[in-house]
Amino acid sequence: MGHTFDWRHANFWRVTSANPLDTAGELIEYGDKFDIMGDVYNFHHFNPWYKVRAGWIPPESILTVSESGTYTIAALENPPMSGESVDQYSALRIRRDPDTE
Questions:
Q1: DSSP H or E run through 72
Q2: Whether 2 contacts 37, CB under 8 Å
């Protein structure tokens, strides 16, 4: 179904260091085992990035994280909250640098 939205496969960036953004990492196609676009046999949800693009998660249900901390997100099975009184977030948006979201 994801291909009908013109979505690509859910890949995985494998690193051998403690840095998840290590440029020496390796891109594994179909590597995201938590996304149906990465592993159709084990999981039956799209990742939040795809759900946001489809409009299935409203913008106010996404928490933008700007500092280190502990954050809790709602289970994928819970419907996303909307409006001004959101107290459970469906996804986190984390900036990896000042120029990239």
A1: none
A2: yes
Determine which helix (DSSP H) or strand (DSSP E) holds 27, and give its type and residue range.
strand 26-28
What average pLDDT score do residues 66-86 get?
79
Query: Distance of CA 76 to CAs 35, 62, 81, Å?
Result: 11, 13, 12
- What does the pLDDT look like over 9-32, one tens digit per residue? 777 788 999 887 788 888 888 777
| H/E segment holding residue 48 | helix 48-54
Residue type, 60: E
Is pLDDT above 60 for 101?
no
* CA separation for the pair 27, 25 (Å, rounded): 7
Cα–Cα distance, 34 to 51 (Å, whole number): 13
